[in-house]
Amino acid sequence: MALHSILPPACAIILSLAWLIVAKKEVFLMKIFQSLYSIRDNQNCEISGPCWKWPNGHTIDKFLDGRIKSKEWRVYGPVYRIWSCNIPEIVITTPEDVRAFHSDSDLHNKSASSNGGWFFHQLLGDCMGLVNGIRWRRLRSEFNHAFSYRQALQMSSSIGTYAHEYVKTMIPDMQAAESTIHVSDAFMKFPFFCTADALYGPMTEDEKSKLWSIGQQSLALMRYVLLGGIYRFKVSQVFCGRAAKELNTFQKEWSAFNNNMYQSRRSWSPTPLIVLAWKPVTEGRLPESEVMQTLSEMLFANLDVSSHVITWLVTLLADNEDKQQKLRDEIRDKGIINDMLLSEYCNKKNTFLSACYLESLRLRPFTVFTIPESSPSEKALGGFQIPANTSIVVDTLEINVNNPFWGRDSHSFNPERFNNIKQADLRYNLFAFGFGPRKCLGQYFAEAMVKNFVVHLLDQYEVHIPLSESRDGEYKSHRDTWVPISNVKLVLSKLK
Ligand code: HEM
């Protein structure tokens, strides 16, 4: 047969196939991925979940639209599947399944680079929160002592002094009786420099401004992670020159900064944490990327997390003025600030302050979908046999809010509910600092930071939500950070 008579039909078939792939690519690729990772229940029904999305699956949905997606995806039942690019992630939503999944949590592995791809790996893939096995144990043991319960208690008084100063000077016009602030802009530097102080010891103004500017570079690089697509692959190094250059500049400056801090503090007493943590790097006992990225995790990734917790606690107190006054009465009646009892008060678990802190962590978990992790064993979850080593994420709103454990008023800010709940019952009914042995390294330190800040803020100011801000149950949150930080303005009225 002559070539010219075969070509037109061949072209038509190729073009039709190309059209099918481009126009129906999402369905087409979903079918391929589904056939690769089939999960069925005992009636042989395939696990359901939202349709795969070009090009990143549900990565963006999970971080930026978590609250909306959690609600939308509820229709798929208590266990369903989403996608991080081509990697399946199983979402679990009930305390029973969280308990079943965590029955062997000492053997769990965090998913490589949190299923975030190559660019994310360059920023945080080797940090403590994402490495496993011996690498994780080695790193955790280098930092554990500095953030233990006892150490956090010891640091609480200097955190309190810093909180007092910060709140006093936070507003440009310190004489003004009333000021409107943008909550995250005004509060953000507090947890950042508090954590920096715990790592580096006292810093000069130059060191502080250098650290802040490197932090801004790191946060800006997260936009490539959120864009996904080509940035999930190493080829982006070749094709995306600007991103590669920004990454390279950040890595060089971050390494040089930590090395300088180490050199300048080697003879200090007491020895700052940076000296203890960087020494193994200089001696070749720990890879530089692991220590550098763990410092990034604590300072830059956590800037969003800690700011989120502080901004939401204050926003919720501003919106619930009766609770705010009750907390202020507790602080003032006990003469806590004047009597220097602050550290002890912040450490107590049976105070109204503690109840407000827990209630805000409950209502506003910093991530709606947790960091993916897997068990080395097959798991029976919600009627499905989930194969070993499958990434599992927990929908924290389903656990913290929509869970029947929290009763009918689970959507309201009601700190008093904690008066009647035993600590042990919170284990799988509250997500705050993680469920297993990989619990947050900085949880005691973070608690001291948040509580000290709120005590000083409420002692000096009354906090209100201005009429211009929406109050119909939903508040604005940021979309340019990976954590949905409160994006609300507050009015601060000076107290006598
Ligand atoms: C209130 C603020 C904070 C919250 C709500 C929070 C929450 C969390 C959560 C949920 C995890 C993951 C646990 C898991 O996957 O099981 C985590 C891990 C971690 N957090 Fe925090 N965190 C906060 C503040 C901090 C601070 C200030 C630091 C700095 C020291 C810090 C350092 C870390 C580290 C290093 C890990 C990884 C732990 C590991 O895998 O061993 N966190 N945090």
UniProtKB/TrEMBL annotation:
SUPFAM superfamilies: Cytochrome P450. It holds the Pfam family p450. The keyword Metal-binding applies. GO terms for molecular function: heme binding; iron ion binding; monooxygenase activity; oxidoreductase activity, acting on paired donors, with incorporation or reduction of molecular oxygen. The chain crosses the membrane at residues 6-23. Its cofactor is heme. InterPro entries: Cyt_P450 (IPR001128), Cyt_P450_CS (IPR017972), Cyt_P450_E_grp-I (IPR002401), Cyt_P450_sf (IPR036396), Cytochrome_P450_monoxygenase (IPR050121). Keywords: Heme, Iron, Membrane, Metal-binding, Monooxygenase, Oxidoreductase, Transmembrane, Transmembrane helix. Heme binds at C440. The keyword Oxidoreductase applies. Belongs to the cytochrome P450 family. This is Cytochrome P450. It comes from Glonium stellatum. The lineage of its organism: Eukaryota, Fungi, Dikarya, Ascomycota, Pezizomycotina.
